[in-house]
Design a protein that fits this description.
Helix content is 35%, strand content 22%. It has 215 residues and is of the alpha/beta class. The two termini are 26 Å apart.
Length: 215
């Protein structure tokens, strides 16, 4: 498959999967969000036992995305740092801010809630765990986003940050690498996604049915 065919396949699948997700009944989406939150919280409980201080990167759900706000509140109540991205639509990049409460948010690009830079503090390190929404995922860790490339550029920025940090510390880049967890409905899973070289790969996928670890 050449690059033009790959882009056409991604465009077609992105449209199909968006329609499929949007067609899910509201009650199903609400229940699925609760189930996904429970899976993530149980996973975080185990992860938190082996770490002194965890930082997660969350997202603020929009449209028919799975809502992980319950996970964020659980993190606040269990001394886990929560960060969320502020997007720059012109450069299609993201910058992280620490979030301590819902009051630190404001409507941002695409009318998605984002951190208010006047109220939230910048976070300039790699989060331990990154929760990633998407249009579709596969069980090889592939992700299809919305086409803007925000998370791909963010992953590249984190890699540069980790590379610089490893040169001035006792930590390797592997030690500093984040765990990427794709968040989606079971209906968004496909056998194989049309993936390009720059597309990020997940370490695990979380759906309402459970957590799929990627080997």
């Amino acid at each position: 498959m050449d690059i033009d065919q790959l882009k056409a396949a991604k465009l077609k699948l992105r449209s199909e999967m968006r329609r499929k997700r949007d067609s899910l009944p509201e009650t199903y989406r609400e229940n699925a969000s609760l189930e996904v939150a429970e899976h993530i919280i149980n996973w975080l409980r185990q992860r938190n036992k082996s770490s002194n201080s965890l930082t997660v990167m969350a997202y603020l759900a929009t449209r028919s995305e799975l809502d992980i706000s319950r996970v964020m509140e659980w993190c606040w109540n269990n001394d886990i740092n929560v960060t969320v991205p502020l997007t720059n639509p012109k450069e299609k990049t993201m910058k992280l801010y620490e979030l301590d409460s819902w009051e630190q948010l404001r409507p941002g690009a695409y009318q998605i809630l984002e951190p208010d830079p006047l109220l939230a503090k910048p976070f300039q390190f790699s989060p331990h765990i990154i929760f990633v929404p998407g249009i579709s995922f596969d069980l090889q860790g592939g992700r299809m986003g919305y086409g803007g490339g925000y998370y791909d550029r963010f992953a590249e920025e984190l890699d540069r940050l980790n590379q610089a940090t490893s040169r001035s510390s006792d930590y390797s880049r592997a030690d500093l690498a984040s765990d990427w967890l794709g968040i989606c409905y079971e209906q968004q899973l496909v056998k194989n996604l049309p993936i390009e070289q720059h597309d990020i790969t997940m370490n695990a996928i979380v759906t309402e049915r459970g957590i799929y670890n990627i080997s």
